[in-house]
Design a protein that fits this description.
GO terms for molecular function: dihydropteroate synthase activity; metal ion binding. By secondary structure, this protein is of the alpha/beta class. Helix content is about 45%, strand content about 15%. A hairpin with a 2-residue loop joins strand 4 and strand 5.
Amino acid sequence: MIVRKAVVSNFSDALKLVKNTGSSSVVHELLAKKGVLNAIVIEKIDNRAANILKQEAISVGASVALNENVSRFKKGVSDTVLFATTSQIDKLVNKFRLQPFRLKEIALKLENIVNKKKVFKYKERYLDLSNPVVMGIVNVDPNSFSGDGLTDPDEALKRAVEFERLGAGIIDIGAESSRPGTRLVNAKTEIKRLIPALKRIKKNVKIPVSIDTYKYETAKAALDEGADIINDIFALRRGKEISVKLIADAKAGVILMHMKGIPKDMQTCPEYKNCTSEVYGFLARQKEYVVGFGIEEERIAVDPGPGFGKTVEHNVELIKSIGVFSTLGAVVGAVSRKKFVKALAGEDRTSFIAANFLAAVCGADIIRVHDVKETVKVLKIIETFRRI
């Protein structure tokens, strides 16, 4: 007889263990759901709801960590952590649907966390995010921080075609540098750099094309030329309603990124009380804002913005916790060639590939990179691990 520990990282791992016992197929999924423990943070929950949550969690065998004010029946809000298996969460969802104090809203979010298949829609198509997708960066700005800016549209086309051949699932074209300390350019300059390359690329690649811009004028020009996704470092705060409506009407995908400050001053002593929580809160608010204009949730991806108004420690925290953002939709891991990676491991391609891989392991769905060939290869390891 052998008694050993099993490693269960997700539902697939649990399902495989159950099947290997030779048990009836009728109970496979039911038992697997009991084998996956989820830790779910609920911030600023009404203390009355927290009390109900605790009682219902106990009734299904789950555990809850509560603020002491809840047990003292004090009014207000607090933070809660729920520890529950997927099976227990399914039961809690049904219970919370009948409860007051916004527990119905919590039920919906819990259901999305454990049961929703992740895709990223753009136009009439979508990307399957069962495994990480590589987004290849094509810079047409001569001031690119990574030194790979292309001023010749034909060279930009050549790079995009090569990226597609190597296995990239998205091309991201940028015509304005956002490196720390840079001065932003006007829309006319950006469009002049962007459109010739975009026209060529759209005619010659089959994968979706994303445009790295926050300007309404540039986004409109790009969408008119067939761009599929708008990748906005200001999370649509600059263009506001007019940009949101533009994207909604085009049925394009959109990537909302967090940035503290603006590129010119974002790295001047950035401070957070709780970096992950504050970044999550910002992205959740921006997502709610754009959904209000009719953009489907599955057309929205989020980027916690490592390197944009964060210290090295903040960046490490965000990458380690990047899976947290998956409750908001597809998550972009954009760490390629960033300064904090160089500070941690040196200015070497090996360091950059390792950072891309780590972002994917920690839960990013779309990995935005300069080094497409190498990143596609290492991400095959993740795909294999998930399959076996």
